[in-house]
Amino acid sequence: AKYVYRFSEGGMDQKDLLGGKGANLAEMSRLGLPVPPGFTITTEACRAFMRDGVVPADLRVEVTLALREMEDSLRRGLGDFHEPLLVSVRSGAKFSMPGMMETVLNVGLNDASVQGLTEYTGDERFAWDSYRRLIQMFGKTVLDIDGDLFADAHDALKAERGVKDDTELTGADLRGLVRTFKEIVREQSGQDFPQHPRQQLDMAIEAVLRSWNTDRAVLYRRQEGIPGDLGTAVNVQAMVFGNLGPTSGTGVCFTRDPSTGHSGVYGDYLPNAQGEDVVAGIRNTVPLAELEAINPEAYSELRQAMRRLETHYRDLCDIEFTIEDGRLWLLQTRVGKRTAAAAFRVATQLVDEDLITMDEAISRVTGAQLGKLLFPQFDAEADTELLTTGMAASPGAAVGEIVFDNAQAVARTEAGAEVILVRRETNPDDLQGMMVAAGILTARGGKTSHAAVVARGMGTCAVVGADALDVDVARQEVRVAGHTLHAGDIIAIDGTTGEVFLGEVPVVDSPVMTYISHGMDAGLAAAPDEETRELIVAVHRVLSHADDVRRLGVRANADTAEDAARGRERGAEGIGLCRTEHMFLGDRRELIERVILAGDDDEERTAALEALLPHQRADFIDILRAMDGLPTTIRLIDPPLHEFLPDLTELSVEVALAKERGEVDEKRERLLAAVRRMHEANPMLGLRGVRLGLVVPGLFALQVRAIAQATATLRAEGADPRPEIMVPLVGSVRELQLVRQETERILAEEGRAANVLLDLPVGVMIELPRAALTAHRIAEQADFFSFGTNDLTQTTWGFSRDDVEAAFFSQYLANGVLRISPFETIDGEGVGPLVRAGVAGGRATKPQLKMGVCGEHGGDPESIHFFHSAGLDYVSCSPYRVPVARLEAGRAAV
Ligand code: ADP
Ligand code: MG
Ligand code: MG
Q1: What is the helix, strand, coil percentage profile of the chain, to 5?
Q2: Which residues line ligand 1 (CB under 6 A)?
Q3: Percent of the chain with pLDDT over 90
Q4: Cα–Cα–Cα angle for 201, 202, 206, rounded to 5 degrees
Q5: Which of 41, 86, 87, 88 to mutate to test the pocket of ligand 1 (most atoms within 8 A of CB)?
Q6: Is the pLDDT assigned to residue 588 strictly greater than 90?
Q7: pLDDT tens-digit profile of 590-640?
């Protein structure tokens, strides 16, 4: 295998092999943009390293060749005594994992080349500072030495010299610090800091490869659903220096406003500093526009590069750059991460500039992003006490208890609390707490700080740089606006405005949700500002286009008239699943108990069923009225009967106690006997669904009669009810045939009585492997199919969902048996083929057979793409997910 690619050899399509950073560095080099020369070690090398535990032998040779080419072209040698070449060794995987892996800068510095660097830069202080940074980073990353030891020594020296800022230490101070750092290395690792530049390089490469599997990287990948076996690439690149004085500096920028998509100059610049200073948020940056005054030429070159990149990627890009002595260098670019709101605005803005088409625009946003815009927000009318305002770093509204560290965050979350992680600033060690927190609040750092970047990536609400906060972790308190708050105190943070409030704040519909539910005028009226109005228009354009191009219909799962209405408001074109279980609960529980207790007493059972009829008819009238003119798929009763009966243990105890008191309650005793008789070891696989309908006479008949009467009643009012009757858990065509015969008999009977024609469609849930595999037979008796992918997943895997999720899914996710829960995203490999078989079988018998899906997968983006490709007609999901499903169905179609 070829393990090393020069930047001139790769390109942006090779993210799998070169990682995102490497692929984009190569792309920039090929565009002729100023990129310090270098090469990329492939992810394949990382995979080989993970497999064998050693770096492949070929790799060393390939690195030698690439390094020599680099040295020759620059006419400098790695770690030379004169004008040394120094390199950075940078991680970079296919998917961005901000701050999760390692990068070692200034590789090649040693006791000799530090002199060369002094000569080259004319700055002794800088050279020794670079050297101490190398030993520190190398010690921590490569030699696994506790980083605090270096930081403490650094602080101690500053205290000794009576200075506060790093930059106040002199060259001589730093030379002394290097000596101290080397001692730390020797004491902690039992070896000297390696002086040989190539040895440094090899060790750094190996450390970066290893950093793919640090705990925090593993945790992050699990959270983000990134496969653990991809590996990272390693980029070795000539160092450039942003800290050579006032004509140097470093920064990050966006090719357009990352929140509105409007063109303009957006970014942060830090004069006289190295790149990592910006990311660490250690010093305060100036707005990029100020660079124009500081260094007009570099500024204008940067603007040109920005335009070039944006035209090339036809999207918003973010860029890391460094100016060395007036000369611009680009160190990284990628299609910029953005907030959900920004994604919609940027996409439509690019359409308006004729850079992309509407089809492309819908592929530039995701259902997950739309989902975020639908989150409820703080009620603007509410009485609040504003504590302070920081930077709005990641949108959303979070209310929760203050926690100060990972342990508290995890403990309180496990106890059921919502928590806000409050830190001075965050670093990669805080990841665990950040993951469980409802919100993140920091006192320091800007929009590109660790907290901000990671929070945006996770979609967690964050406010950063709220510098009025005095966070005192040692005393476990935070002081702000005259308050001293402790762990456990409630605060509310608004990641959209940056506001931090004391106590609970109530939440309301977001303006985007208001637009979706009540139309453009209502949405615009609810929008607090011009930006939000623009956002609503952007969402409208994108969603309308998705509606135009999608092939999949979108229905809602709703059991009640209110839910049905809510789904309809949000664009549902029908109900894909109306469960009827609740129609047997509450006050009606007693009636269903009577049905069961009746045993062979037909008269008693019929009486109880008849008593249920008017209630259920009223339920159906409500729902069908809410869905007037739209198909409403009603599922006949599905769960095991014992769910409607008292708990066996409780009832046994009750009866036993009564007996002890000498009371005789015959009814309770008969109930107990029935409950005992019906008790099942495996209810999920027991008497439920169609089996129940066939075994308990009159049960399905009652439901069908109630539906028939509701339909007839509404028709008489001039309404247009469109119920579809769905039979659950069918495994054999004969089961469906029996139900169908009875259903048709009742529909005919009720039709005659009401003098209307009631030929309602009768369909079937395909949720058992046998049903999927015999779909061609089942279709003979079915007017439609609806895939019940929850049960299909349970029965295909042999998982009992309620049991396995809590018991061992987290372990299965950790050890890679599962990449993601198959109940969240359909298992395309194992359950997918059954869906496809069901579709093929059904259509073989009836080419026009209507097919949908009504499991929870119907609202999951990845699953929706699968259902599109499987050729289904519609998906059905919770009313809340309907807009998301509309968008994803559109995205699947372009
Ligand atoms: P991350 O992926 O965590 O951003 P990077 O590999 O981008 O890590 O490097 C960390 C910092 O070091 C960035 O600010 C980057 O700009 C800077 N850096 C990396 N390589 C070089 C280089 N060759 N010259 C100067 N600065 C560099
Ligand atoms: Mg970077
Ligand atoms: Mg089911």
Answers
A1: 50, 15, 30
A2: 36, 88, 90, 99, 103, 105, 237-240, 275-276, 279, 320, 322, 331-332
A3: 73
A4: 115
A5: 88
A6: no
A7: 888 888 778 788 899 999 999 999 999 999 999 999 999 999 999 999 988
